[in-house]
Amino acid sequence: GYRVSLQGNFFGHNHKYVTFPVYNPRKHIKLDPPLNLQSNATASKCQIWWSVRNVPWYLVEILQYELQYKEYSMPWEIALNKTPSSSLPQTEIEATELHSGIAYVARVRCKVSENENSYHSQWSEWSQTTVFQRADVPKLSEKILNTTMQLLFILLSFGTLLYLFWNCKLSSSCFLNLGQKVSPALTFPRQLLSFSHCIVCIMGISR
Is residue 199 part of a domain? Predict the structure, then answer.
């Protein structure tokens, strides 16, 4: 600790005033504001990070941050505050807290954590701001969606026809194995005709 006094000449007389009988610098800290504030907004969240300067290494891990953000056109008096849970110089804002198509601005400040007994500080000044906007969820165009639905329908229909054709083939084999006289001319052409008719129908629908 230190003893801090004020000494001067007043009206021709020297006077000395004790300002702080015991002054401990570690209990009266004010840090420089964070700098290099940056942001990256996606459709699900907005990531914000920054850095600090002139901070001793033994204070970096016990820092506390406060983020303040608002709509760009609104005053800071109605801004929202967010306190990160760790001492890392970064935080996130969920997309549910942001409106689509609205520009936001954020700033951050720091101080020694209130849970720390060895050091005490007041809040730093606010940092410079960063502007961000939530990204919209990409949507498929109507044309792409229609093309995709047609392709799925064709694949499903083709798979169904293959399944039916395979079952018909197995059924014909079973009849032959049972010793029944089944003429191939009566079965296969009819199956082929049905299969060709279905293919023509599918081609007409896809067009």
Answer: no
Per the structure, the complete domain to which residue 102 belongs is given by: 29-134
The Cα–Cα gap between 88 and 175 comes to 76
In a domain? residue 140 = no
C-alpha to C-alpha distance for 200 and 182, rounded to whole angstroms:
28
Query: What type of residue sits at position 131?
Result: V
Asked if residue 202 belongs to a domain, the reply is no
Contact status, residue 90 vs residue 50, Cβ threshold 8 Å = yes
What are 160-190's pLDDT values in tens digits? 877 777 776 655 554 445 445 444 444 444 5
Residue 128: strand, helix, or coil: coil
* Mean of per-residue pLDDT scores for the chain: 81
- Amino acid letter, 32: D
Type of residue numbered 172: S
Any idea which residue has 């689509």 for tokens? 100
Phi-psi region of 182 (alpha: psi -120 to 50; beta: other; left: phi over 0): beta
Number of domains in the chain: 1
CATH number at residue 63: 2.60.40.10
- Among 64-73, 81-90, 177-186, which is the least confidently predicted range? 177-186
Instruction: Report yes or no on 66 lying in a domain.
Output: yes
Q: Under a CB-based contact definition with an 8 Å cutoff, are residues 55 and 37 in contact?
A: no
